[in-house]
Amino acid sequence: MSGIYIHIPFCKQACHYCDFHFSTSFRKKEAMVSALRKELEIRKSEGRDNLVETIYFGGGTPSVLETHEIESVIDTVYRHYRVVSRPEITLEANPDDLSDARIAQLADSRVNRLSIGVQSFCEADLILMNRAHRAEEAEACLERACKYFDNISVDLIYGIPNMTRELWQQNIEKVLSLDIPHISSYALTVEPKTALARFIAKGTIAPLEEGVAREHFHLLIDILETAGYVHYETSNFGKPGYFSKNNTAYWQGKKYLGIGPSAHSYNGVQRGWNISNNSKYLRAIQAGELPMQVEHLSKNDQYNEYIMTGLRTIWGVSLSKIELEFGSKYRHYAMRQAEKHIAEQLLSLGGDTLLVTKKGKFLADGIAADLFMVNLS
Question: Are 248 and 234 in contact (CB under 8 A)?
Answer without folding.
Answer: no
